[in-house]
Amino acid sequence: MCGSVENLPNGPDENFPYLDENERFSFPDPAQAQHDSVVAWGGNLSPGMLLSAYEQGLFPWYSEGDPVIWHSPDPRFVLFPENLHVSASMKKTLRRGEFNVSFDRDFRAVITACAQTCRPGQDGTWITADMIAAYTKLHSLGWAHSAEAYRAGELSGGCYGIRMGDAFFAESMFFRASNASKAALLTLAQTLFAQGVRFIDCQAYTRHVQSLGAVEISRCSFLALLRETRESGLYER
């Protein structure tokens, strides 16, 4: 792993060992990363590889045609229970029941819609076919979860991520109707926090998630939080 990027295959490395959900891989220490948020590159998206990354404060993010690139941003964008903000307008939206929000009803539809969403400043999507397959596999194993917001029976927005014990790692969201993604994420956040989740990792700053109360913390603080959470059951579903 690591080495010269030019010598690595595009996407997941077929020659890299497949790790099941009970196997782990030790990544380079993200606290020592010298290339902005990039910690390592190479490997694959097998269940054990992905779970190892989240446990160690990393996540995969790469474009079609690149090798798998593992990131650990500094600062990190995190949503804590005490900071969760529901605006007056969103309270009305939720109270009126404008959206029917469900969990894990259609994970593949949510991640596929996230992949198809155009985002400012991005040319194409980082949610490749390999990523969709990998996270759908994690969903079938009980690690990846989705929240769906329906209006009049139509999927109007949603989000997905990974839950590991008292931590939730949010990956992406989409909307086809105003406030749909917020309704899904807020409902998910309220449910997770009520169940004892200590934080939702939102990875990198977005104004959309900042409006819900997410704050930036240093990578060092995030890794310390991760270690503390791991000791209280991070490895459990």
Please summarize what this structure is.
The protein is an alpha+beta fold and 237 residues long. The protein is built from seven helices and ten strands.
**Widest sheet: strand ordering:** 5-6-7-8-9-4-10
| Largest sheet report | 7 strands, mixed
Helix content: 25-40%
Shape field: globular
Number of helices: 7
| End-to-end distance | 27 Å
> Structural class of the secondary structure composition?
alpha+beta
Question: Which whole number gives the mean pLDDT?
Answer: 92
Description of the molecule:
This protein is an alpha+beta fold. It is built from seven helices and ten strands. The model has no long low-confidence stretch (mean pLDDT 92).
List the helices and strands and how they pair.
Blueprint: E1 38-41, H1 47-55, E2 59-60, E3 69-71, E4 76-79, H2 88-96, E5 100-103, H3 107-116, H4 129-140, E6 144-151, E7 154-164, E8 167-175, H5 180-194, E9 199-203, H6 207-210, E10 215-217, H7 219-231
Parallel strand pairs: 8-9
Antiparallel strand pairs: 1-3, 2-3, 4-9, 4-10, 5-6, 6-7, 7-8
Task: Supply database-style keywords.
237 residues, 3-stranded antiparallel sheet, 7-stranded mixed sheet
